[in-house]
Design a protein that fits this description.
Length: 123
């Protein structure tokens, strides 16, 4: 193969694979960050607070304080557990299940967003 063909092949390969990279990355993360942020701000922030620390304006008046999503306990829970809590809610407090309001994808999106507020820790 002469040099020209070789360079051409390298450029072609780069052009072919470059656009694939972001897609491959997006697929490895189920949730969509941008959408998750909007969902959190619209539905969760009033209780859990803008930063997720559980100090939202509504949360202040509740008998059971909203969970601090930045806490070690929450960060140790796997994504799947957060997903289930958000979908089904917790018993005996204001954190009702969101199954009827949010879609499966919405919940994945919001879990992904919560993970950016406080990265997961190993269990
Ligand atoms: C009306 C107030 C309120 C709203 C709105 C609310 N939550 Fe909660 N959330 C709570 C309370 C209260 C708890 C339970 C605290 C406890 O049991 O210790 C909780 C618990 C949680 C937990 C469990 C944390 C853990 O470590 O167990 C997650 C995750 C969570 N909420 C996410 C969300 C998401 C996502 C939304 C929006 C879709 C949301 N919450 C909306 C009040 C609220």
């Amino acid at each position: 193969m002469n040099r020209k063909t070789c360079c051409g092949l390298v450029i072609l390969a780069t052009l072919l694979f470059l656009p694939m990279e972001p897609t491959a990355f997006a697929q490895s993360q189920i949730g969509n960050l941008e959408r998750g942020k909007v969902i959190f701000e619209e539905n969760c922030m009033e209780c859990h607070g803008r930063t997720g620390d559980g100090r939202g304006p509504v949360g202040y008046f509740l008998a059971v304080q909203p969970a601090d999503l930045l806490s070690v306990e929450t960060r140790k829970k796997p994504d799947s557990e957060l997903y289930t809590i958000i979908r089904d809610g917790t018993l005996f407090d204001e954190m009702h299940g969101w199954e009827k309001i949010l879609s499966d994808q919405d919940i994945h999106d919001v879990v992904r967003y919560i993970r950016t507020l406080a990265p997961p820790l190993p269990q």
